[in-house]
Amino acid sequence: NLEGLPKLPLSRQIIAVPEAANVTVSMVSASRETISLATRGVNYPIMPRQAPVPKCDNPEDMPFLIERDFYNTSQWTSYPEIRVEELGHMRGMRLYALDFTPLQYNPALKQVTIIREAEVRVDFIGANHAATQELRDKYYSPAFNGVFQSTLLNPVSTRGSLNRYPMGYVIITPANFVDALQPFVDWKKKEGFNVILATTSETGSTASAIKGYLQNIWDSATPENPAPSYLMIVGDVAQVPSNTGVTSSAHITDLTYVRLQGNDYLPEMYFGRFSATTPAEVTNQVNKTLMHEMYTMPDDSYLAKSVLIAGVDSYWSTSHANGAINYATTNYFNPSHGIDSQTFLYPASGSSASQIVQRVSEGAGYVNYTAHGSETSWADPSFTISNVNNLQNTNKYPVVVGNCCVTSAFNIGICFAEAWLRAVDKGAVVYIGGTNNTYWDEDYWWAVGYKPPIPSSGSGSPFVPGRTGNYDALFHENGEPFEDWSNSVAATIFMGNMAVVQSNSTRANYYWEVYSVMGDPSLIPYLGIPTDNIADLPDTIFLGMDSMELVADPYSYVAISMNGVLHGTGLASASGELTLYYTPFEEPGMADIVITRSLVKPTIASIQVVPNEGPYVTVSPLTITDPNGNGMAEPGEIISLNLSLNNVGVMDANNLTASIATTSPWVSILEGEEQIPNIPADGNITVSNAFSIQISPRVPDQASIPFEITITDGEHTWSSTRSIITFAADLNIGDV
To answer: Which range of residues forms the domain containing residue 99?
Structure first.
């Protein structure tokens, strides 16, 4: 299927191949038939294959490609009936394309030969199965299961135990964004990710240095500590550079950072970017992301609405734009899925710009536009950066997909995608789009899957198993087992791109480079108002335990952590049962439990960790009593420290004594020991003025003064570290 030569049907399957194997294919048997086209009413040559048509180009301006030397001679097409082509590695999986061309054509004879039925043999010669398994163990990620299981002809059972390790998440950021990112980092840990936060001062500030840092992480992976599944870049190109495309120097791409095995274009991690130039812009995007992922929006009714737009193009929109949107509404975005879809088809969409903006402004959970675009807008119907900045959708932030040219070209200033994410108290939580031109055929396949032919009526293709597109991956409701689900926004991009690979398009590698996520690549869209998880959790767990039993919705991902440290993760079974194994807790406190699952509300809960015998006394943060009553520790003051104590044990705590010590040079302890009243099991008390200390007159402002507080009952001893902050006037003496 070469440009200028006859466009013949091709069936492409993706297969997994062992390491070191030489792949051979042969036709064992075939049933062929030669047909005269004239007898079937076909009196013209088979159309030659044309170059993909960019959405931003006029097809009339594109040259018509034809190999006249072929069409003017009596010869048969020489396409191999069956062949293989190495695609590369993705996530430790060696992938090949298996292409079957069942038809050959002779233009002079006006005949075609068709293979009606065939038996094909594929052999892997010299396979190194040990090396194959080693790679798959090192680079296994449950987040990639859906991509492999839905697209491979020979899916490999790669589902490992999520109890053994969580997925990894790498964040690359300038140092001055770290504080603004901290709530996002804390959440990702609670959600069940091993987070690696690296500043550009650690990785290096050039694109090649950052790639080297990520390459080292990839190369250092082990079966016990597999390579991360997600990469988040934080900053605009001036803060964290991107890369010039290889398939075209006209676009920018972050794909280069995750091309970590071989020279192919298949990525090894999902990737996304918070494009920001200031900490405030980071905070805004973090807040919108956390509202979505933690499900804290004050009104969730907007999630039951979508806005789907087939834009204007007199030649392509009827078949391709309407076809994609009709596929989406027929199969997924409809009342039977609890979704009210505001759908705008061509040609009526061309006069609906103000109505579309209003629908988005009122609130929608998912917005999709397909047609022409620019760096700063959807072209027709028009939706501009100014429209984005004037939206009123506070706390109603959609996932937005732009199947159009260059709306994610984030190297031009503030592009359309960046505007959606940076808009404060409005805009979107995620924008998916291209950093360069996208193409009519390829965008259709990306959205609905490679399901030829594309109906000219715009009715949309039927669902075809094994030909999954972006919409199918979002909903995963066609009988796919759990391993086939593609949950995150980044995974759905990969499913769309794999559909383009299945089409044998010459733009397949290009699509890997240009389609990207603005926002958190691990975000899971809700697609309607999600149901509550049936999670049933214990009220308490004991110190020293390393597992607990729980029940949740089938295939729920469960994470347990405390004080920012992830202790364990697990995946509920098909029946919803889980024995969650975790690293035992060494101190009592409140453990955080987060349970997530596609199309279900997250469960965010706390479980008390308590001793299983005797008393156990903990210390709450210190408060102070000071002479001037302002509640601040200031230079030269003698202040009292107030103790709040909790007995989280199962027996009363009696005969208690508390003592205090410090290593700080800025305080002197005047009274450092106190007798404490008895505390019943599961009780608490406050002891006012327990200790007396003097603050140095020379103490600096905002000094953190640590104290070691020891509680004993003569048999047990409990130690806690607590601190106070000093407040000193910051005097600047200027010219007089």
So the answer is: 11-139
